[in-house]
Amino acid sequence: MVGVAFLLVGIASATARDLPDLTALVENLKPVVVNIQTSKKARGGKQAMPNNPFKNSPFEHFFQPFMDRMPQGEMQTQNLGSGVIIDADGFILTNNHVVEEADEIKVRLVDEREFVAKVIGSDPKSDLALIQIPVKQKLQAAKLGDSDAIKVGAWVVAIGNPFGLEATVTSGIISAKGRAIGNGPYEDFLQTDAAINPGNSGGPLFDLDGNVIGINTAIFSRSGGYMGIGFAIPVNMAKNVVTQLKSSGKVTRGWIGVGIQMVTQELASALGLETARGALVSQVVKSGPAQEAGIKAGDVILKFNGQEIHKMRDLPTIVAATAVGNKVPVAILRDGKEQTVQIKVRELPKEESSAAASKGDADADKTDPLGIKVKALGDNQRRQGRLGDDIKGVVVAKIDPDGAGAKAGLRAGDVIVDVNRQSVESPNDYEQAIDKLGKNRNVLLRVARDGGVLFIAVNLDR
Asked: Which PROSITE patterns did the record assign (predicted)?
């Protein structure tokens, strides 16, 4: 028993020695982290009681006097977040959603000094914003590190203001890199188990050398609190955004004009690839840079300007970061053979929201003439819809409740098998079928639902 006791003590001591001592690091870093409080004025006005169960009934007039006595005029909402000083002249990096549409932005430093900040520039697509406070003396600024060099398993420290509790320190490790969580087209998040909660948004994620390697921006939570999964924008992405915001107040992104999709293992085998990699071109924008360079639908983009495209979502981020006007080499696979073309990168048009201009990945919030958005039919949807292997089509991923499709009886989760008797086996097929409608205002859909198949007639004038 004595021997066992000594063994346990030895293990505990070794474990303690392996854990990093963060006291000196945190003491040095606290001054570069700030508390951000924003306020926004909203105009009030007399209106009918929202969600009034007695609306349009004899009882409605009983409730209106209460609405009339409610405060009218300006109402104020407040938001709390964090930020990190990245320049001694008072430039602070934070999340766009922390300061977006704010009427006033107050910044509190660790020494309790408060300043009113102005927005230098913001970029909703990356959820980053650059603000500045008026300072007479130089501030301590954080050092920006290299998020590409950080490895999974590396220790990290988050400092911020979760739930308004200023200068709170949490630690953990990098759990994963290159995460996409559906927030936009330019996703390459660092995942960490360092506790991140509401109020941490915009705050820095440090490595053990005190370098900022990420900007904390999101949590995965069913309760609104910490669940061991947080996400940070890689600082290498932020560097490019900050440089542009500082010089012009806006961000310009590259664009080549292609629609892309993921290369599955099945597609890889059919295309002559040993492994599933690259971005499969599903559409080429007319008169766009890619078409002018000779890119065709069915090509697989393997490298862009010397950078490997491991996964489909790598391409939009790399293209977006490429300087507009540059002519760059693009390695593609066509008919089982690799070749290289030169593409001159243009500026991302305002109506596009993806660097690769993919209709399937861009404009995620927009719907088509039927008021729907479709996606490829996967195994999960096939199981959920009790569909046989012979059913092929596209899934209604999003539907406008006021759109023509919804009014005709179409539902989210339905699988569209054909459009006007033209089979659709992919989102690209569906888009082509919709493009052929022209002036035809009547659409006949064959839809798989709950293990059966039915026809739905949609009138686009509805």
From this structure: PDZ
Q: How far apart are CA 324 and CA 420, in angstroms?
A: 41
Which residue is associated with the tokens 């932005």?
105
Q: Among the ranges 63-72, 248-257, 436-445, which has the highest mean pLDDT value?
A: 248-257
Name the catalytic one among 82, 122, 123, 127: 127
Residue 357, pLDDT > 80, answer no
User: Position 108: which residue type?
Assistant: R
In angstroms, the CA 401 to CA 382 distance is: 24
**261 and 237 in one domain?**
no
Asked if residue 86 lies in contact with residue 142, where contact means CB atoms within 8 angstroms, the answer is yes
Looking up residue 155, the CATH number of its domain turns out to be 2.40.10.10
For residue 99, what are the contacts with CB-CB under 8 A and spacing of at least 6? 36, 38, 81, 105, 117, 119, 122, 129, 131
| Distant-in-sequence, close-in-space partners of 334: CB < 8 Å, separation ≥ 6 | 296, 298, 299, 300
Q: How many domains does the chain have?
A: 3
91-126 confidence digits (pLDDT tens): 999 999 999 989 999 999 999 999 999 999 999 889
Domain residues for the domain of 439 are: 372-459
Q: From 248, 274, 305, give the residue that closes a domain.
A: 248
Q: How confident is the model at residue 238 (pLDDT cuts 50, 70, 90)?
A: very high
267 and 238 both lie in a single domain: no
Lowest mean pLDDT among 19-23, 44-48, 217-221, 368-372: 44-48
The token duo for 45 is 């006005």
Residue (of 129, 196, 192, 193) closest to 162 by Cα position: 196
Q: What's the whole-number mean pLDDT along residues 64-83?
A: 65
Q: Give the end of a domain, one of 248, 279, 305.
A: 248
Residue 235 lies in a domain: yes
Question: Is 97 a known active-site residue?
Answer: yes
The answer on pLDDT for 225 being more than 80 is no
| Phi-psi sector, 263: left (phi>0), alpha (psi -120 to 50), beta | beta
